[in-house]
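About this split. The held-out portion is used to measure sequence recovery: a designer receives only the structure tokens and must propose an amino acid at every position. Recovery is the fraction of positions where the proposal matches the reference. Here is one held-out target exactly as it appears in the evaluation file.
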């Protein structure tokens, strides 16, 4: 196999159609208004469609802590203080964090020692973070700009589906 086709294969394997994923989730969300069910399906759909990851889930903001919500992967830490770890830092700053090597992130919390790179997207409504979406990969630098923009977009669709229910999003599940 030539270098070009190897690169082509890699791109083929890694590229996720996030627009399609957003549409698939919107269809699922339409069919079920239960927040726990909707959140569990959001996580399950993303985990099934994003390749080369070993963990994906939600941490829900409760007071000054993030509490483990629906997820796929190995059992994980149940509580993360805001401001700690990649998740707590993302929640505190209200910014997506894309970490190529988690061992370079000061204060990284290792739930699964296999995780090497991580993408954390804060879920924001009315200007306030109410949860984060956390995705881990056993490969270094797994997440690209395309993954960041795409997961931010599907997260906005998820937040919009929750907002459509017109219930407070504080401690939403
Ligand atoms: N690595 C995260 C902790 C959560 S697990 O990856 C599931 C962090 O540093 O916040």
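Reference sequence for scoring:
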């Amino acid at each position: 196999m030539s270098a070009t086709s190897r690169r082509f294969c890699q791109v083929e394997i890694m590229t996720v159609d996030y627009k399609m994923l957003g549409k698939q989730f919107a269809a699922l969300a339409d069919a079920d208004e239960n927040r726990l069910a909707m959140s569990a399906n959001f996580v399950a759909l993303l985990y099934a469609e994003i390749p080369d990851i070993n963990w994906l889930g939600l941490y829900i903001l409760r007071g000054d802590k993030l509490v483990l919500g629906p997820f796929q992967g190995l059992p994980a830490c149940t509580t993360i203080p805001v401001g700690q770890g990649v998740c707590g830092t993302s929640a505190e700053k209200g910014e997506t964090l894309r970490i190529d090597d988690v061992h370079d992130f000061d204060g990284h919390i290792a739930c699964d020692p296999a995780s090497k790179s991580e993408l954390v997207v804060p879920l924001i409504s009315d200007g306030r973070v109410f949860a984060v979406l956390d995705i881990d990969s056993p490969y270094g630098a797994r997440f690209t700009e395309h993954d960041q923009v795409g997961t931010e977009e599907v997260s906005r669709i998820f937040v919009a589906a929750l907002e459509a229910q017109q219930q407070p999003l504080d401690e939403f599940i």
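Annotator remark: Residues 55, 76-77, 80, 85-88, 108-109, 111, 115, 118, 134, 136 surround methionine sulfoxide (CB under 6 Å).
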